[in-house]
Amino acid sequence: MSAFDALMGFTRETMALAQVAGRLGWDQETVMPRGAADQRAEEMAAMEAVLHARRVDPRVGEWLAAVDEAALDDVGRAQMRHIRRSYARNQKVPADLATALARLTSRAQGQWAEARAADDFAAFAPVLAEIVRLKREEASALAAGGDLYDALLDDYEPEAKAADLQAMFDALRPRLVALRAAALDKPAPKGVTGTFDEAAQMALSRKLALAFGYDLNLGRVDKAVHPFSSGSGLDVRITTRTNPADPFNCFYSTIHEVGHACYEQNIDRAYLLTPLGQGVSMGVHESQSRIYENQLGRSRAFTGWLYGQMRDAFGDFGIADEDAFYAAVNRLQNGFIRTEADEVQYNLHVMLRFDLERALIAGDLAVSDLESAWNERFAADFGFAVDRASNGCLQDVHWSVGLFGYFPTYSLGNVYAGCLNEALRKAVPDLDAQLAQGQTGAATGWLRENLQRHGGLMTPREVITQACGAAPSEAPLLAYLEDKFGALYGI
Question: Domain residue spans in the chain?
Answer without folding.
Answer: 3-146, 162-489
